[in-house]
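Ticket #4471: structure output looks truncated?

Reporter: J.K.
Steps to reproduce: submitted the chain below (139 residues) through the standard prediction queue, then opened the result file.
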Amino acid sequence: IQWRVAPLNLNRYMLINSRSDPRTMSTQQTGNTCYFQTYLFAVLCKISKPSIARNGSPIDLHNLNLLEEATSCIAKTLLEFFVKERGDAVVMRPLTNSNFVIDFFRYEESPYYLTMTKYLQHLNCDDVPDYDRQYYDVM
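Returned output as attached by the reporter:
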């Protein structure tokens, strides 16, 4: 068995890959456990159906516009996790962890906040969720 790098056929950042080198998978971005990276890999496999090119390099990915749409939705969902406004209605998730009240104000120090916000800004999204509003609406 011989190990070698098999780059992705990506030329743009799509959350699942490295921002500095789009041809490589991302590494643990959020400061959380590796579960989020496993989730992103599953999203990549489900949507883009990776296959090995005939010459063995790179890894061919398909449905890239759908992958970008999905990763954008993932980022928005994580930034609207506690409260989501739907017209005049507000939908709230139950608070299962009282640390929200104590810790939420430090969200700007959280790696996932910066990762998701910067990704949406990178996509030039007009509707990057206002994360301050999450705290305000819950409290």
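Triage note (M.O.): checked the attachment and the full token line is present. Strands lie at 51-52, 59-60, 83-86, 89-92.
Status: closed, working as intended.
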